[in-house]
Amino acid sequence: ARKSGGYQQNLPHSSSSQTWWLFNSGVSVDVFDWGRYLGDGEVLMGKSWGSVSEGVRVEVPNTDSGLPMKVYWIASIIKLAGFKALLRYEGFDSDSTRDFWLNLCVPDIHQVGWCAAGGKPLVPPQTILHRFTNWKTFLVKRLTGSKTLPPDFSSKVKESMQFPFKKQMRVEVVDKTHLCRTRVALVEQVSVGPVGWIGRFRLHDDGVIGGRLRLIYEECDDGTDDFWCHMYSPLIHSIGWSRSIGHRFKRSDGTRKLDGQMDAPGQLFAKVKEVDQTGLWFQDGMKLEAIDPLNLSAICVATVRKVRRRRSPSRSVGRLKLLRLTCSLRRLPQVLADGYLMIGIDGSEAADGSDWFCYHSTSPSIFPAGFCEINNIELTPPRGYAGLPFRWFEYLKESKSVAAPVNLFNKEVPNHGFRPGMKLEAVDLMEPRLVCVATVTRIVHRLLRIHFDGWEDEYDQWVDCESPDLYPVGWCQLTGYQLQPPAVTAGSRD
Amino acid sequence: DAGGRKWEQKQVQIKTLEGEFSVTMWASDDNK
């Protein structure tokens, strides 16, 4: 809520270079124009395309032909930014005044030769028609020895846009009103953004856009109780997951699977790494540092609340019932399997543990005590803690607790390539239906500090470099998802 | 190249209003 009001007050920008293909497809939506905003700044994925690089020639629609029908001309990639390319029509030489940004994954970009194969003649832009009398000589000279896209480029793009989740599939997802438990939800039809076709891509056909799911909690009659997340989010699981690991779960009252509904197959979900729990392992009460799931800007002092040393040998219901009965008889706490932990934020915990949050032990969102100090990050002390400034040594002594051993945490740092200042499209995880223009402002190993452009720093979020909620520039345009432009405030209007 | 892609020289057909001709260009065999 804090952001949606602000975003809705912003007027989206548009430009002719950005919207030509939308108009061609009959879809008219105003979209934020990354082109002007990017300038010379560094952009995520700018150098990450394999066979697509600066200098590669493509055939694209000629928007300056003066003809009533669609014709094409050859353009050269000047710069790459995420999915977007800055293009210059052949014949403009060093004249950059007509350069234009285009998403490379829209259907109307082709390898050189595509037009001839379809019997379409290439037509030079009107602006430069007078420059050359012999276009054949010019093109032979310009194109010989240069690179073009592979012939299967378009089909590879289309292939990559197939998503396995379908509308009415049932999943288990974290209950947003009680973080400590999961609920059943259904993949639902997407209700925001453009509906229709962009070129060959049909939007919102199966309730999935670019891997992002809008889930409606079961037992919600009016379909408004929703939850947005990516299909690879650690917050969603297959039906039965909660039971299999001993996680709290909100049962649906009398709801039966209706016609057309099916449980999403287990192989569709992100897999967690298997962990060796046979030796030293997390124990209830151990202290650590964790990203606060309710305030992703903060890394807080936290406590392990539930763990389980070993996974049960069988996941059958009968065995689990027996296990629960055994636990209850021995007065043992109910615990989690498969390397999952419940984490409570010190000083903010509800008495009944309803705000404990489930993190896997390999999660990049939990850290050993001292992580913030070593990396010069402000650690949020327990609410109401009197012994400020916070010192771990004193705190452990006062709370008669121990820190979780450092070697139990995920220390892998992928060669992610992010650098401070890079622009990207990022989900506001506090309002996860919104994908926003954002900047990487800080990098600590694999952890990225994401700033939402135009917003106060207090809305920044710590996000893992492999998060499914970070996208390259142009992702929203590619998938038809509405990109939230930078907030325009009095101070930043210029 | 460094990404393990094989680049191949290809005769590419071009059609303009003046007629058809071909040029030699490079294309990757694997768009990752």
The main pleated sheet of chain B reads as: 2 strands, antiparallel
Strand order, sheet with most strands of chain B = 1-2
Q: What is the oligomer described by this structure?
A: heterodimer
- Low-confidence parts of chain B, pLDDT < 50 over ≥5 residues? none
Low-pLDDT stretches of chain A: 1-29, 190-207, 311-334
Provide a compact summary of the structure.
Chain A is an alpha+beta fold.
Explain how this protein is built:
The complex is a heterodimer of chains A (494) and B (32). Chain A is of the alpha+beta class and 494 residues long. Chain A contains eleven helices and 28 strands. In chain A, strands 7, 8, 11, 12, 13, 14, 15 and 16 form an eight-stranded mixed beta sheet that branches. Chain A is elongated and about 85 Å long. The two termini of chain A are 26 Å apart. The model of chain A is unreliable at 1-29, 190-207 and 311-334 (pLDDT under 50). The two termini of chain B are 13 Å apart. Chain B has strands at residues 7-16, 19-28. Chain B has a two-stranded antiparallel ribbon with strand order 1-2. Chain B is 0% helix and 62% strand. The interface between A and B is medium-sized, with 32 and 24 residues.
